């Protein structure tokens, strides 16, 4: 503990996790990280004062709070197999992954069996907001654990909302991403149609920005595309597909539009474009006629 603030181990110091870790460091927390495929991000954090743990198990054994920000539910379950044996009673595990609520509740039960505490707290916003401490955290936890969770997530979030018990934060995040990534799929279709129908992109964007079609997704994705930058929305298509797949499962028979948007994203993944950012869907594919 540094100055009364818990030591936080961050598993998944990628585009989002690295920014969250940087915000934790600025707030005075001891931060532990493990090797990541983005070695440059880990090196920057270590230069800023983070400590490198040898492995996820080493990190979990040393931290008072474990913060995970990994690709999906299976990755969270795999980590649980590694870190649960060393998790001390009373340790808090905050999962910021956009995950499957069923996985969340299953892992939370195992964590509780070890005498530790689990909370789901995925975030909205991007890497720049993570670095600046301006994300929003969607929390699912026991009401009695909220104050402890909030102490950590407030360092990188300007908005914190508890949606209910464990799993509620992940459910709310899936609904949020249904709107944002569903909007992205609609924008890709609308601006592809504009290209085919001879409608000027700049003119269409201008009128959208002054009416009800205006959105953060529009401005983040289409604005830069008008300048030739199709990487304005820095969120991988494969992650968007995963999020909408989880949303479809959560909504069940009610998932009519969600299912259609997911099908669009799944097609892009199947055609080998999963690692591209979602705003790349605005760009004509080389094989398009």
UniProtKB/TrEMBL annotation:
Catalytic residues in the record: 173
UniProt key word Transmembrane: no
6-phosphogluconate dehydrogenase NADP-binding domain location: 8-160
InterPro entries noted in UniProt: 6-PGluconate_DH-like_C_sf, 6PGD_dom2, 6PGDH_NADP-bd, HIBADH-like_NADP-bd, HIBADH-related, NAD(P)-bd_dom_sf
Highest rank taxon of the organism: Bacteria
UniProt keywords, alphabetically: NAD, Oxidoreductase
GO molecular function (one): oxidoreductase activity
Chain ranges of the 3-hydroxyisobutyrate dehydrogenase-like NAD-binding domain: 167-283
Protein name, per record: 3-hydroxyisobutyrate dehydrogenase
Organism: Tranquillimonas alkanivorans
């Amino acid at each position: 503990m540094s100055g009364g603030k818990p030591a936080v181990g961050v598993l998944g110091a990628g585009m989002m996790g690295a920014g969250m870790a940087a915000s934790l460091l600025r707030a005075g927390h001891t931060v532990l990280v493990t090797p990541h495929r983005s070695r440059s991000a880990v090196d920057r954090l270590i230069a800023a004062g983070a400590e490198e743990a040898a492995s996820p198990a080493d990190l979990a054994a040393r931290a008072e709070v474990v913060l995970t920000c990994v690709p999906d539910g299976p990755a969270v379950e795999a980590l649980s197999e590694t870190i649960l044996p060393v998790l001390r009673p009373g340790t808090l595990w905050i999962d910021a992954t956009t995950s499957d609520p069923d996985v969340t509740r299953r892992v939370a039960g195992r964590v509780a069996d070890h005498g530790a505490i689990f909370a789901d707290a995925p975030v909205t916003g991007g890497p720049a907001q993570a670095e600046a401490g301006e994300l929003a955290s969607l929390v699912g936890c026991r009401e009695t654990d909220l104050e402890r969770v909030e102490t950590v997530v407030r360092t990188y979030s300007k908005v914190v909302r508890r949606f209910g018990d464990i799993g509620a934060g992940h459910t709310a995040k899936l609904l949020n991403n249904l709107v944002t990534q569903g909007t992205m799929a609609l924008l890709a279709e609308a601006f592809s149609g504009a290209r085919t129908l001879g409608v000027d992109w700049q003119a269409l964007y201008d009128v959208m920005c002054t009416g009800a079609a205006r959105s953060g997704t529009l401005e983040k994705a289409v604005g830069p595309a008008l300048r030739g930058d199709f990487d304005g929305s820095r969120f991988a298509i494969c992650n968007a597909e995963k999020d909408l797949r989880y949303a479809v499962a959560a909504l069940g028979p009610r998932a009519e539009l969600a299912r259609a948007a997911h099908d669009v994203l799944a097609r892009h993944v199947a055609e080998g474009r999963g690692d591209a950012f979602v705003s790349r869907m605005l760009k004509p594919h080389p094989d398009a006629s």
